[in-house]
Each structure stands twice: as structure tokens, then as C-alpha cells.
Amino acid sequence: MTTARDESKLSGKQRSFLRALAHPLKPVVHVGHGGLTDAVLTAIDGALQTHELIKIKFAGSEDASVVDFAPEIEQRTRSNVAQVIGKTLVVYRGRKKDPIIVLPKAKEKPKK
Q1: Alpha-carbon span 47 to 93, nearest angstrom
Q2: Residue 74 sits in a domain of what CATH number?
Q3: Phi, psi values for residue 70, rounded to 5°
Q4: What is the pTM (predicted TM-score) of this model?
Q5: Mind listing the pLDDT tens digit for each residue in 81-112?
Q6: Radius of gyration over alpha carbons of the chain, in Å?
Q7: Is residue 33 part of a domain?
Q8: In this structure, which of 21, 61, 64, 90 has its CB flanked by the most CB atoms within 10 Å?
């Protein structure tokens, strides 16, 4: 895993699209009391390679909020958090080759 981030942020329309796709999904990675260890980040990276869109469930970490973990997950897995709901994160990282999920185009900002 590299820590360089080469993907842009998701637009609101793209986040909405991903939230709709993620609704029926079950969490594929569970983070326990140990928090974000290298093993957990490797599991998240592997799940993103396979599925592109995953749910991550956090259990027991009363010290830190799930929102506190989101930036580190985004940075260390080169992904984008599409939604935070309760103790669950919805994370997306598109494949460069043979993508399963095709995001809607983001609106271009009007030129002045």
C-alpha cells in the first residue's frame, strides 16, 4: 500500500449513487477494539480490490468516533468515504482496469 492519493474527491451526485449501491451490502471488514492496525488496513485494501465498494463496521471503539478513522482509511487505502452512518463506513475505490462500478459524471463548475 502506498500513502499517495491520486483520486479526486467524490461529488454529491456520485456519493448519492454509491450510497444507493451500498444500501443492500453487508459489512465485509470488521474493526475491533484494536482499531486500525496494519492487518485491518490490508484487509480493507484487499476488499476494495475485489469489490470496489465496501462497508466497514466498527465495534467497540468508544475512545474515537468512526469519523476520526475516515481520513486515515482514505489516505492509506487511496479510497473515498462515500458515507458514514452510525458505526459503519461506506468506502469506494474504483479500479483502473475493468471497473465494475461506473460513476455518474460530476458537474463541471461554471466558468466565469
Answers
A1: 10
A2: 3.30.110.60
A3: -55, -50
A4: 0.83
A5: 999 999 999 999 998 888 889 888 877 666 66
A6: 14
A7: yes
A8: 90
